[in-house]
Amino acid sequence: MKPTVTPLRYPSGKTWLLDYVKEFIKFHKLEPKAIVEPYAGSASVSIGLLQGGLVNEAYISEKDPLIVAFWNAVLYQNEELVEFIKSLEVSLETWYSLKKYLHFDSDHKYNTVELAGAFLFFNRTNFSGIIKGGPLGGKQQQSSYKFDCRFNREKIIEKIQGLHDLKGRLHVAEVDGIKFMQRMTSGTNENLLFYVDPPYYGAGRELYRYYFIDEDHQKLSAFLKRLEHPWLLSYDDADFIRNLYTDSKTFPVYTDYQSGNLRRNVRELLISNFLIPPLAPSIKVEGKQHGNNTRMVDKVN
Ligand SMILES: C[S@@+](CC[C@H](N)C(=O)[O-])C[C@H]1O[C@@H](n2cnc3c(N)ncnc32)[C@H](O)[C@@H]1O
């Protein structure tokens, strides 16, 4: 079974894509100094690349303050977060009592550890880790899946403690993804790789507290088309998205992925300004890759 790199169960989390991103980097001989992940969620790709030694630093951004609080607590208040998790009774009563953290406003009085702990609790006890979803097993607990079946406290704590080592190399921002990428590219020619995993086009509204409308997808496409650093984008497949990336340097592919405990096929669109190498048997390039591959040829040869 594949070890997971983050303690989060994230809807559309990309642990399954990590090996492919590593291959992508090697194929293009990219040697990035840092990875930039503007739509972080569980940040599985950034953390996997850091832990695998493929990058020295990762810069992640996320709009949901609960997720930002989680990453900040992991890095800067690790012991307090662990104590908070130890103190939690894993019960439906706790689930109801923590609900208030999902409805805070900008004047909230909660501290980072409380927000982080509440986020982790819902992430591990809600159906599919969906933060605004319902509890595993249902509110009546009549299913064969019980509320605490994904809350292995020891393992969660072990992973959180393990991530503390990334302090100083993992940088977290609470900024809109496009603004974050603009900030990362202004006035620097550093060797950066952008891994971009925006909210899904189809199910984004159901999966995340912050999601995109059509205009946001359009703005992201316009930004990426101007971005000169290598970027790799993953999306759920939809005609609307395909039409945004018909540009000559983009290469839609499908991945039919089955791995370890993830016994499901993932049909996802990968798009890049570099050639998408069909290195893993699970990656299927759809049709002929076309367009101007000059940059890819330069890198490979
Ligand atoms: C597809 S998920 C990312 C999943 C991540 N790659 C992983 O492996 O867990 C998209 C994320 O974008 C965040 N998001 C939504 N709108 C955003 C925005 N404008 N700027 C930054 N993050 C945003 C959502 O909260 C969600 O966590």
Folded structure, characterized:
This protein is an alpha/beta fold. 37% of the residues lie in helices and 12% in strands. The chain contains twelve helices and eight strands. The chain has helices spanning 18-27, 44-51, 65-76, 78-87, 92-98, 112-125, 153-163, 177-185, 204-207, 214-226, 239-244, 294-300, and strands spanning 34-37, 57-61, 170-173, 192-196, 231-236, 253-255, 268-272, 283-285. The strands form two sheets. Strands 3-2-1-4-5-7 form a six-stranded mixed beta sheet, with helices on both faces. The chain has a two-stranded antiparallel ribbon with strand order 6-8. S-adenosylmethionine (SAM) is lined by residues 10, 12-14, 38-39, 41-42, 44, 61-64, 67, 176-177, 197-199, 208, 210-211.
